[in-house]
Amino acid sequence: MVHFGTGYLQLGLGFPNPVLSPLGDSSSLIGPQAPTMPSITLSNYKPIGRFGISYEVFAARMSRQENFPTLDGADLTSGYPRLAGLQGSIAPAEGLAFGVNRITQYGGGARNQGWRSDLFDALTSSNNPNPGQASEFGNRVASLTSSIVFSGRTPFAVHMEYAGEDNAYAGNHRLGATNMSVGLDFPRLWRNFDFAYEISEWQNSWYVHHVYPEGLVNRGHVIGHWFGDQRRFGDAIGGRSQSLRAGWRSPWGQYWQATYRTMSLDEQWRIGGGEVGYDTLHSLRLDVAMDVRGVAVEAGLQVGQDVFGDSFARLTASVDLAQPGPRGARYDSDGGSADRSVQLFVDLGANYGRVEKLFGVDIPVVRTDWEVNPHVAVGARRAVSQRSDFGVRVELDRLDGENLLSVRALDYRYRFNSRLAVNGFFGVGRYDFGLPCYGYYYGAGVQLMNVLPGWDLSLDARLYDKLGRDKTLASDPPSTPDRTRLFFDAEMIAFYLSRRW
Q1: Nearest-angstrom CA–CA distance, 371 and 353
Q2: Which InterPro entries match (predicted)?
Q3: Whose CA, among 54, 231, 330, 453, lies 20 to 30 Å from 76?
Q4: Are 376 and 497 contacting, i.e. CB atoms less than 8 angstroms apart?
Q5: How far apart are CA 395 and CA 336, in angstroms?
Q6: Is the entire prediction scored with pTM above 0.90?
Q7: DSSP 48
Q8: How far is it, in rounded angstroms, from Cα 258 to Cα 295?
Q9: DSSP-assigned letter for residue 154
């Protein structure tokens, strides 16, 4: 990759690999394993302004695909689809970042129109006037990301990504078929160890498209999350993946890393049935990196079983002549500048809520009665200024007899004094109605701090907006052209005690 320009505006030409996610193993839009594409980019490497604004805009050419429809649907064409994307993020405080990302697959063959107008529409337009038809402009995927670092005595970071294929319901801000990923990263444990865990859960319809027969594929591989290559080609099935990674820096200079992956595909997500059955994927990989006379040398062994029940084994080795390998222990002591404002906490209380079920245009809306259920949560926060705190939180509730899991990607608290604070939050809700339904949730509240030493008392109000999924279960209402998904709105008030450390 070659760059020209300044720290605030630079032009790049070459074959970059723009991973559009803070997660190391679970990027939905473009992942680290994606084959690179010839691209042109505009970006900055110096953050702009007090909010630390960063951006990247790129246009790329994907590998050739055969026999996809022309815009009028009258014929088939072949060619090289284009890929345009943009990434914008802010970092209002050190170790805190929020991002918005989007990519669009479009054009190729006879679908190419004017390159300027096509590129502009790919970057800015969210409207598909003819969804599901050949005249649809392209294949869009978007994501929201967050990342926060907690620099306590044992530092850790929490990363989140909420991604969706196209739109759902009214408006352009609600994501369609979703993929939710959360990662927990400990860069230092017991001096010379590190640890990371990531989990992803996706609905159906990922990386397939009615216009492009190969979907979001470049040179035979899905450009996003690695689950896309671990299924029958074109099978738009939902599922869940998890990965564990542990590393050790030995006293003799080698860096050892073990990575375990598992993935299961859920047949209930398949629309229209099918004959393909899948096993659970298991993969274990061991890598070692070392310095040999000033040269970086790496070797790895991977074994496992894929989703078709077949066993596999791989042996890899590489030599990097441009730089030395790791030397010596990673950390000499447990010292460092630990952030004393970091707090871990547990919430325990009750919620009072109701849910509204939107099953179809011609089906009456169902509103449940208000009911009381238990409320439990765990979270972490840290100070970013004299009165402001940011954090993350995972909440578990019940609503109309079903589990409701909520993840606060942005959890802000403002402290008026040592006794009174207010908070606002935004995140993603997961309502377990047969299969998981995802959507946004947000709210605000008030907190009385130190009602007892180490104990706080809180009252929150929150709204859940169009938690949805496709109608894939036999028990679901019939799918119609104007309503192929189930949606749920919810209102809730939570009252709880928090124990913090």
Answers
A1: 6
A2: Caps_assemb_Wzi, Wzi_sf
A3: 231
A4: no
A5: 32
A6: yes
A7: B
A8: 22
A9: S
Q: Which CA distances in Å does 259 have to 114, 162, 289, 302, 470?
A: 46, 24, 14, 9, 33
7 CB-contact burial (10 Å; exposed 0-12 / middle 13-18 / buried 19+): exposed
Tell me which residue has tokens 């939107």.
358
In the chain the domains, ranked by start, together with CATH numbers, are 2-320 (2.40.160.130), 343-500 (2.40.160.20)
Tokens of 90: 């802010």
Q: Please, which residues bridge with residue 445 across strands? A: 423, 460
φ/ψ (deg, to 5) at 267: -60, -20
CA 473/CA 486 separation, integer angstroms: 11
Cα separation, 271 vs 476, whole angstroms: 12
Q: Count CB neighbours of 396 within 10 A.
A: 14
Is residue 248 classed as helix, strand or coil in its secondary structure? strand
CB 79 within 8 A of CB 211: no
Counting Cβ atoms within 10 Å, is residue 434 exposed (0-12), middle (13-18) or buried (19+)?
middle
CA distances to 153, 333, 334, 371, 398 from 191, in Å:
11, 6, 6, 49, 41
DSSP assigned state of 235 = -
| Whether the Cβ atoms of residue 61 and residue 83 lie closer than 8 Å to each other | yes
Structure tokens at 107: 């054009």
Q: Closest Cα to residue 309, out of 279, 266, 282?
A: 279
The four Cα atoms 66, 68, 70, 76 give a dihedral, to 10 degrees, of 70
Q: 286 and 301 in contact (C-beta within 8 Å)?
A: yes
- Report strand pairing: 217-218 vs 221-222: antiparallel
Beta strand spans in 107-212 (E): 138-150, 156-167, 175-189, 193-202
CA angle at 444 for the pair 441 and 447, rounded to the nearest 5°: 135
3-state secondary structure 374-392: EEEEEEEEEECCCCEEEEE
Q: What's the token pair of residue 206?
A: 């990922």
Rg (CA), the chain: 24
Could you list the pLDDT tens digit for every one of the 501 residues in the chain? 899 999 999 999 999 877 899 998 889 999 887 789 999 999 999 999 999 999 999 999 999 999 999 998 889 999 999 999 999 999 999 999 999 999 999 999 999 988 888 999 999 887 665 566 778 889 999 999 999 999 988 999 999 999 998 787 776 788 989 999 999 999 999 889 999 999 999 999 899 998 998 999 999 999 999 999 999 988 889 999 999 999 999 998 899 999 999 999 999 998 765 677 899 999 999 999 999 988 999 999 999 999 999 999 999 999 998 888 887 655 444 445 678 899 999 999 999 999 999 998 889 999 999 999 999 999 999 999 999 999 999 999 999 999 999 999 999 999 999 999 999 999 999 999 999 999 999 999 999 999 999 999 999 999 999 999 999 999 999 888 778 899 999 999 999 999 999
- Vertex 435, ends 198 and 433: CA angle to 5°? 120
Overall size of the chain counted in residues: 501
